[in-house]
Amino acid sequence: AQRVTQPEKLLSVFKGAPVELKCNYSYSGSPELFWYVQYSRQRLQLLLRHISRESIKGFTADLNKGETSFHLKKPFAQEEDSAMYYCALMGPGGYQKVTFGIGTKLQVIP
Amino acid sequence: NAGVTQTPKFQVLKTGQSMTLQCAQDMNHNSMYWYRQDPGMGLRLIYYSASEGTTDKGEVPNGYNVSRLNKREFSLRLESAAPSQTSVYFCASSERGISHDSPLHFGNGTRLTVT
């Protein structure tokens, strides 16, 4: 069974400090992994996807198959980064095979 | 361009009452989904519609029914609400099946309380 673990419910960092939101997954095949974000009073939206190897709003995430991790990182936290972050894994069969983590609330302290 | 619109935003029901959550998208997406989110749990898929005219069960379909009224609209019905259905409900759509280039687009959510 596929599973996504986000071990931290809350992560507090000071503005300007590095951020690492942890995501570990359990899946036997080659997963597609995503990070979704929900800012206060806004809808859940896609932040980035591993296959694109992109950097969005200064965030990056590298898929580490050996450690089965997809941690989200940013070198210098900004106040506007405060939000709920969800890691999601998609296995084959798309529609019903998307598993979300429980989410991590990032709080950036001014 | 409103994206995915859900109504209502909040609802309180008594046990046994029925209601329908409405969802519409204006992005011409083929696939639509209903998720629920509970404290300490990730989003869980209730039902999905891969394309107009089709619906399928997700992970937690019991107690719910859905209707894909047309390409734009996908409603979720609770026939006899139970306290266990107290949750936040999210509607989402994707251009086609979920993939790296067809991600989910979410509505703002409906907070439902069943007493």
Principal-axes shape call of chain A: globular
Alpha-carbon distance between the two ends of chain A = 41 Å
H and E string of chain A: EEEEEEEEEEE
Q: Spans of chain B of 5+ residues with little confidence (pLDDT < 50)?
A: none
**Uncertain parts of chain A:** none
Which sheet architecture does the biggest sheet of chain A show?
6 strands, mixed
**N-to-C series of helices and strands of chain B:** EEEEEEEEEEE
Q: What is the rounded Rg of chain A?
A: 13 Å
- Percent helix range of chain A: under 10%
Oligomer: heterodimer
Rough shape of chain B?
Answer: globular
Q: Which structural class do you get from the secondary structure elements of chain A?
A: mainly beta
Structural description of this entry:
The complex is a heterodimer of chains A (110) and B (115). Chain A has 110 residues and is mainly β. Helix content of chain A is 0%, strand content 44%. Chain A contains no helices and eleven strands. In chain B, the strands form two sheets. In chain B, strands 2, 4, 5, 6, 9, 10 and 11 form a seven-stranded mixed β-sheet that branches. A four-stranded antiparallel β-sheet of chain B has the order 1-3-8-7, with no helix packed on it. In chain B, β7 (64-68) and β8 (74-78) form a beta hairpin. The radius of gyration of chain B is 13 Å and the shape is globular. The model of chain B has no long low-confidence stretch (mean pLDDT 92).
Short description:
Chain A has 110 residues and is mainly β. Chain A is built from no helices and 11 strands.
Question: What key phrases describe this protein's structure?
Answer:
heterodimer; A: 110 residues; mainly beta; 11 strands; B: 115 residues; four-stranded antiparallel β-sheet; 0% helix; globular
